[in-house]
Backbone:
């Protein structure tokens, strides 16, 4: 009775389900093991403050196509994310930029380094810390050692359990040193949050007579993947429609080559009887405490309540069945392990793997939406 079965109701699954129903007129079953749609982007109210249940989610993209597509399901509130880091007793702007340098260094030293940065890289350039570390000039080396030590080393140790050199360079390059006075965390062309929050976006995407959503249902209970035959059974009958799988790829194959490692988080929310707690939405604590950052949601979704809600993120190793697999861990070895699963996945001609877990990629929301739209066009549009 269904043409498509989509496993997971995060952005990857919801985009495909929406496109299959609206563009192709297909009947779609969405199977989601959590009790809600939206995956890790899910938000809900605590004490009248809209909070992101699985950590702060800030939408930013340079893709007009992605922004236009999502705009069908929401109006936006313009929002530019600002982050401070607590360093040497001060709260200074992150990404580390010229303002951060003037706040932390004596004026004459900051001036000397600024001149050198401008002549070497030019205003507006963004330099990953691991690139800056290759500088031999004594002042630039002083800068890179400082930034490495005070911003990246201990934060990365908390977040990933390793040093910045032991993970893929793209990870720390997400927050490059910025040769500018722009204190925004992102510089993308489109930056905003959905006016009524992310959960409402998903409700609109999945609100279609052709889409049935089953919550609280692990796909294991409905689907059986026969690896020998390369066939999938839905309620014990061979299913010849399309299957879109957005869960962990290693779990689907019973971890036959071993577990793909993830990092997880303990997310600790606190409601406070005061109208505000900190100056910016997020404050990072690279060198202090066991949590990496505190986010105060009223900055993201303003409300005029007397209470405020904050979130502390405590990173930890992901343990199967206990934790949520939030971050794939990028090392060459893990990439090679993923490639084995990817090859195995080709046994199933009618199963498509999309999303952060299924592709073991550090996708942001816009990346996932783009990827799902591309997969739809390339593999499902008929
Ligand atoms: P998910 O959202 O994980 O959805 C997958 C869904 O599949 C889940 O709901 C899961 O329950 C379900 N599922 C898995 N296995 C099964 C199964 N066997 N049966 C049934 N259902 C199953 N991106 C940004 O752009 N900006 C940000 O500021 C940002 N902040 C983030 C902060 C944190 C702490 C984290 C963890 C991520 C952040 N992201 C951010 C990334 C964003 O969350 C992802 O890009 C996006 O959620 C990926 O969507 P997805 O559909 O691939 O995965
Ligand atoms: N990072 C850091 N110090 C900071 C901010 C980021 O060391 O103050 C590093 C850390 O390794 C982190 C990565 O940069 O995991 C990417 O940061 P981002 O804020 O993009 O992480 P996310 O929001 O995805 O958790």
Residues:
């Amino acid at each position: 009775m269904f043409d498509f079965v989509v496993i997971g109701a995060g952005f990857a699954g919801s985009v495909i389900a929406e496109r299959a129903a609206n563009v192709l007129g297909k009947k779609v079953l969405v199977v989601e093991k959590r009790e809600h749609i939206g995956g890790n982007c899910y938000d809900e109210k605590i004490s009248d403050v809209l909070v992101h249940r699985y950590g702060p989610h800030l939408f930013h993209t340079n893709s007009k196509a992605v922004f236009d597509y999502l705009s069908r399901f929401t109006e936006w509130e313009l929002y530019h994310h600002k982050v401070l880091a607590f360093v040497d007793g001060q709260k200074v702007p992150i990404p580390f930029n010229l303002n951060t340098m003037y706040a932390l260094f004596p004026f004459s030293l900051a001036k000397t380094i600024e001149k050198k940065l401008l002549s070497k890289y030019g205003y507006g350039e963004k330099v990953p810390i691991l690139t800056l570390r290759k500088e031999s000039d004594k002042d630039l080396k002083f800068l890179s050692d400082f930034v490495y030590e005070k911003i990246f080393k201990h934060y990365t140790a908390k977040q990933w359990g390793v040093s910045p050199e032991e993970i893929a360079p793209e990870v720390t390059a997400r927050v490059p040193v910025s040769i500018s006075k722009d204190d925004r965390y992102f510089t993308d062309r489109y930056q905003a949050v959905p006016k009524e929050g992310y959960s409402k976006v998903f409700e609109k995407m999945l609100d279609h007579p052709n889409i049935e959503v089953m919550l609280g249902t692990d796909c294991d209970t409905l689907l059986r993947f026969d690896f020998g035959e390369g066939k999938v059974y839905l309620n014990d009958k061979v299913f010849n429609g399309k299957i879109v799988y957005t869960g962990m790829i290693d779990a689907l194959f019973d971890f036959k080559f071993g577990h793909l490692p993830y990092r997880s988080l303990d997310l600790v929310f606190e409601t406070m009887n005061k109208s505000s707690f900190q100056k910016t939405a997020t404050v990072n604590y690279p060198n202090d405490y066991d949590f990496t950052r505190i986010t105060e949601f009223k900055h993201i979704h303003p409300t005029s309540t007397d209470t405020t809600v904050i979130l502390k993120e405590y990173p930890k190793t992901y343990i199967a069945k206990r934790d949520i697999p939030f971050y794939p861990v990028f090392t060459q070895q893990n990439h090679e392990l993923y490639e084995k699963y990817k090859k195995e996945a080709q046994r199933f001609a009618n199963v498509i793997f999309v999303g952060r877990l299924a592709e073991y990629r550090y996708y942001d929301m816009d990346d996932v939406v783009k990827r799902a739209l591309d997969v739809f066009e390339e593999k499902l549009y008929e």
In short: The pocket of uridine-5'-diphosphate (ligand 2) is lined by residues 85, 94, 151-152, 155-156, 159, 171-172, 174-175, 284, 286 (CB under 6 Å). Residues 262-317 form one domain. DSSP finds eleven helices and 22 strands in the chain.
